[in-house]
Amino acid sequence: MSYLSPTLTLLVGAVKKATASLDRDFNEIEKLQSSVRGYQNFVSRSFERVAQTLKSELSRLRPDAVFVDGKPPLSRGCCFMVNPIDGMGNFVRGIPVFATTVAYCENGEVKASVVYNRASDELYFAEKGSGAYKEGFRNHERLRVSAVKDGTAALVAASIGFQHGSAEYTAAYRDLFAETENVRLLGSVALSLAGVAAGKMDVCLSLGSNLNSAVAGLLLVREAGGYVYNLKREEFAPEKIEQVIVSDELAATNTSLEAFIVRLAG
Fold this sequence. Notes:
Blueprint (H helix, E strand, L loop, with lengths): L5 H13 L1 H10 L6 H23 L7 E3 L9 E9 L1 H4 L7 E8 L2 E9 L4 E6 L3 E4 L6 E2 L13 E5 L6 H13 L3 E2 L4 H9 L5 E5 L6 H10 L3 E3 L11 H6 L2 E5 L4 H8 L1
Helix pairs in contact: 1-3, 2-3, 6-7
């Protein structure tokens, strides 16, 4: 695929322009680790720069659109759900695993989304009904979920947001490692979902986390042939974004690992 729709062209352009400042900021962040206040202020300014540029650029697509952050999208009209830096914990430590995410929604349904890791220059995008792709130099690579069927062999990207040391935190990890030792903690829900869409990961499991950034990744997984559930096996579809936002649990996988998800759910 070499063609991008007008909507995706604008989304991709906006994300790349907004994240240009992260090249410098990410290189500078390691020098500020000795001063807690110094790097906290620096990161806040970096976050705001990306957010403001995104808002300015995306408003060109739909001047009437509302920007929502951490809240359910509008059931009527259009809106953008953005996260300037998903994986902030990695960013502040100079770890190159973070993403800028944008989801364009109409009448409560995700229509298009972009997930971009500026540090690695890996950009994933999807449009409802048109598939999910990873950006390439000339042609874009179509994404497909993996074909792994054995849960014990599945590579799981996990995000456990419960307070460290809590009963929920301990139980979640105990149950997860009882099923598989192949667990990766990426620190970014959006990149974990992109990994599932690309077939690099077989499962993304997020518990007790803010799922605002999951909305962009949700469309990637669905358009790559996968499914996204809560742990009651209720499917999250692109037209059910509100369920994702108000939930604090999510599991994304291919079509063959539902039984594995059921075991994880206990």
